[in-house]
């Protein structure tokens, strides 16, 4: 049996079960407009009975995809994304941030996946996206666009299929390289294809899409996690949605008394607080100082930002082993968030004692930074990721049960431990502390 045949059989069996359940979620109402008001970061939380726009998924654009000088002309790109909360309408954000030429999307759709990670759409869920009531949109190089709203009852913890078709050459593709999720490509305009047979090419990337918003009564705001590979979930199980942010979203949906927040992943693997990615590591993205507004603060409905950053400043060249400068960078992030009336929770730097880049000097700087984070003088609140992941017998190392194998990145259990270390009550407060 070939890989594709095996996949098709598995997807088909799963679809039998999922189609029954997804049928109750499919919207049948009228269309909405993308011009509706978005919730303002830091504003008063809406009552539970009212609806508002909130982000349900995001992935920051990291770089231009290598070897895509022509883009993907005459190709349909079907991105698979996983929601954190549900809603009755949806709108999609696309980016041409790293493009060098205008990107024309002449046909775009959104649908519920018939089965997890399947390119086949649930029956009756396919919706055509418009932009200013037009089916086609051209995004200038460096630009972005949000679709008009479409009526679609989107469940929480569900896979969406967001498909875009570009007829022309468009230059380098803006992408997120470490999706840990299979997406798909098909030749020609297959944007409204319900069946997934045409999507024969698999991809480990998210292309062009950067966020999904829903009109929701399930959430009164969003928490964005600004981080590096530990937030990106680079070592989590592919297609299983076991990143730290996925586990956090599950807690917020299921635990009694938890804030009614969605979770937005703003992690880029290799990202640093102080330095941009360079020609040797282009996928590391702009520095957190430069991208916090774009990737976290400006996302729809954000009330709180969790910051999980700092290890790459110690590890990557040029290395920054001055704790004062790293703390100053963290304080810069807090100032930007407070200026947007957003609460900030800071994470301690996790153990790396068995990683190849470890040195005692590096660990001493890490410990100094953690001591200052724990002092409460930098952030509105603290989550101690270091304590959650370290081996009590060898505190400079990850607990073996949480180690993916490289001494730096957690496995699925480690990502769950990180999410469980977050005090959900600290996600919400009347106002940011005056630090």
From TrEMBL:
Molecular function as annotated in GO: hydrolase activity
Any Pfam family matching the protein: Lipase_GDSL_2
Domain SGNH hydrolase-type esterase, residue spans: 225-417
Record's keyword terms, sorted: Hydrolase
Positions of region (Disordered): 33-74
Protein name per its UniProtKB record: SGNH hydrolase
């Amino acid at each position: 049996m070939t890989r594709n045949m095996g996949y098709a059989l598995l997807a088909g069996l799963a679809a039998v079960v999922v189609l029954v359940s997804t049928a109750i979620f499919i919207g049948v109402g009228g269309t909405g407009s993308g011009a509706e008001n978005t919730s303002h970061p830091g504003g008063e939380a809406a009552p539970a009975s009212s609806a508002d726009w909130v982000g349900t998924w995001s992935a920051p654009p990291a770089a231009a995809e290598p070897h895509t000088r022509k883009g993907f002309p005459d190709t349909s790109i079907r991105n698979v994304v996983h929601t954190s909360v549900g809603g009755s309408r949806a709108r999609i954000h696309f980016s041409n941030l790293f493009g060098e030429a205008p990107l024309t999307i002449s046909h775009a759709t959104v649908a519920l996946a018939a089965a997890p990670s399947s390119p086949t759409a649930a029956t009756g869920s396919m919706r055509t996206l418009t932009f200013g009531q037009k089916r086609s949109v051209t995004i200038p190089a460096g630009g972005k666009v949000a679709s008009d709203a479409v009526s679609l009852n989107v469940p929480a913890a569900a896979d969406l299929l967001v498909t875009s078709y570009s007829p022309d050459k468009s230059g380098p593709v803006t992408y997120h390289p470490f999706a840990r999720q299979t997406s798909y490509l098909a030749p020609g305009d297959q944007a409204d294809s319900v069946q997934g047979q045409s999507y024969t090419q698999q991809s480990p990337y998210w292309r062009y899409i950067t966020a999904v918003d829903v009109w929701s009564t399930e959430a009164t705001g969003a928490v964005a996690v600004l981080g590096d590979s530990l937030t990106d979930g680079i070592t989590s199980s592919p297609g299983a949605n076991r990143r730290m942010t996925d586990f956090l979203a599950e807690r917020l949906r299921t635990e009694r008394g938890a804030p009614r927040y969605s979770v937005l992943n703003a992690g880029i693997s290799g990202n640093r607080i102080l330095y941009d990615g360079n020609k040797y590591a282009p996928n590391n993205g702009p520095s957190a100082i430069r991208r916090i507004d774009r990737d976290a603060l400006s996302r729809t409905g954000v009330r709180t930002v969790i910051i999980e950053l700092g290890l790459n400043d110690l590890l990557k060249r040029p290395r920054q082993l001055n704790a004062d400068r790293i703390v100053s960078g963290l304080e810069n992030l807090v100032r930007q968030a407070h200026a947007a009336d957003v609460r900030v929770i800071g994470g301690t730097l996790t153990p790396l004692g068995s990683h190849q880049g470890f040195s005692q000097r590096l660990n001493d700087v890490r410990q100094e930074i953690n001591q200052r984070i724990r002092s409460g003088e930098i952030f509105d609140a603290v989550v101690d990721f270091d304590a959650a992941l370290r081996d009590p017998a060898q505190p400079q190392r990850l607990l073996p049960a949480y180690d993916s194998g490289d001494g730096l990145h957690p496995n699925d259990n480690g990502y769950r431990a990180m999410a469980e270390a977050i005090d959900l009550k600290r996600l919400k407060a009347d106002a940011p502390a005056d630090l």
